[in-house]
């Protein structure tokens, strides 16, 4: 179920402070964050956020298309290697 419109989007307080501070100084450094649950807001436009996926930080450059999405959507936590590629190779070799 989505979050109430009355409450507004959730952004981690420490992340919001860092964004506001960088906007005041007109600075464009990479911000490391573990807050995958935070929603991307218009104040984040133009910044690069390094989102932790459990193993490493994935850089995400925020554009207008990303506003309203969660940061975790752009840092996948699992590596998909395919469905039975060894079986597929064997079946194509027999044909």
Helix content: 10-25%
The oligomerization state is single chain
Order of helices and strands: HEEEH
Work out the strand percent: 5-15%
Low-confidence runs = none
The gyration radius over C-alpha positions equals 19 Å
Structural class: alpha+beta
The N- and C-terminal alpha carbons lie at a distance of 49 Å
> What does the average pLDDT come to?
91
Q: How would you describe the overall organization of this protein?
A:
It is a single chain. This protein is α+β, with helices and mostly antiparallel strands. It has 2 helices and 3 strands. A 3-stranded mixed β-sheet has the order 1-2-3, covered by helices on one side. It starts with 12 loop residues before the first helix and ends with a helix.
Task: Record keyword descriptors for this entry.
95 residues; alpha+beta; 3 strands; 24% helix
Topology of this structure?
Elements: H1 13-25, E1 31-33, E2 48-52, E3 57-61, H2 85-94
Parallel strand pairs: 1-2
Antiparallel strand pairs: 2-3
Quick summary of this structure?
Helix content is 24%, strand content 14%.
